[in-house]
């Protein structure tokens, strides 16, 4: 309850923002100056904080086991550090990732996709979820330990192969506690991080992103990212993701999701998140529409992640820093608070169309 009150109080100061919130020109110039003078020096193996680095790497690996554990870790972190808005945004988006993973074994999507193709789609979703956690969680833990020691520790970011883009942003957050600036910075960083390592992969371009199924989902509006929240009844708020290949589109989507979550529905989404454990099943938010039991014919089958998929063994290769030009700096200027964000009716229509497609596929195969 204290977390809820603290965040609501801080957001109430910004409610004059209706459709757009802008980071000041002065803040942007300060960060741009720091980025232009930053050097990408290799880590020194003799650093005094070597034990802390080891602890953070071990803790990140511990929680990067599967979507369920990652999603909970984000929420637990936010409960301890409510000024880190990105962690709650990541929690809610990660719930969507889990639902997308289990859809591949559910009654709506599984008739439309072979078991072999389902595995490839799962690996793509799981790698995206794990890559972001692998990059972002050490940053969150560094902030945790900085607070604990009352000392800026962000000079240690290179020891976790974090982009040079993030150090000035964390430094500035340490000084100003500008939660929106940090959130937008992390959105930009993480989307560029997976662009380089996953989205541009020839394998996943051919087997996932350029497939008829993926393109059909985008065209038919089945790529919603939404946040359940309860008023008199449960509602869904979010955006439909299109042009997933485009990193700039994904960044803009992330900004919109942030605007919706923190400036439109925060209190109600927070109550949902803290009262509803994430299992990966869509029955988490609509138990009158979805079920975890495969034989309940009146409802759509949506298994838990534990039932649907085994843990995936990841390896994380060292890649060059994605931040090589100043093009992304201007993306820090603003984020968006969409006027139209309610998706409940749209999602119900999507379900009806998917159900029809699944029935047709069953008849013709």
UniProtKB/TrEMBL annotation:
This is DUF2515 domain-containing protein. It comes from Bacillus mesophilus. InterPro entries: DUF2515 (IPR019658).
